[in-house]
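Quick illustration, no need to memorize.
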Amino acid sequence: MCLIVVAWRVHPEYPLVVAANRDEFRARPTAAAMRWPDAPQVAAGRDLEAGGTWLGATDAGRFAAVTNVREPGRPPGARSRGHLTRDFLTGTVPPGDFAAGLPGEAYSGFNLLLSDGRTLWYRSNRDGAARPLPAGIHGVSNHLLDTPWPKLTTAKARFAEALARLPDESPFFDLLADDEIVPDEALPATGVPLEWERRLSAVFVRSPDYGTRASTLLVRRADGGGFLLERSFDAAGLTGEVRLAFAPA
């Protein structure tokens, strides 16, 4: 997952709203969002190579999402980052305790967002201790929380506008579909070649072998109900859409 924007306790009717894009190599085997057969309380896509997920939620109000930290040339961690989200969603440990107890050295660089519906926590193994997040709009791409990369700054601004238009879902998918490339003078310098820096600067990444493979909107209402809506893509375009509902508590 390479971009996540979250509204936490901003909208009076929807305490948690998440819009996210997952960018990945197209050859990596993936299952679209579904109720997991081995954990039916979980609604999430699934990485079929390592068994984890990039974003998901449960009927009980748990939410988890992860992005990688872009650090080319650094040796990979021993564990898959998708297990962070999987283990939280399938468990019962409070988010603060879960985040604080992670062995960060076992993973490549990550940004992790966790919620149980009562609190929202952020943890990165490249940014110090776990911490609860205040009410507001927060975002992360492939650096640290709220790093002002152009794609994240743009996405957060458009997300705020979309939030005011709920229950209309279309503005969120409009922003997630933005494939505009950032001008060279505004690009971050993350250690990848310039061609890739340009390509990855878009909210929606397009290339034959790597790109945005899923766009997800998660909306939870104050009564605990809501939905997860995921659109899947290949190099040619949209391949499917899945909507999974959560009943009120």
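Residues 4 and 20 are 4 Å apart (CA to CA).
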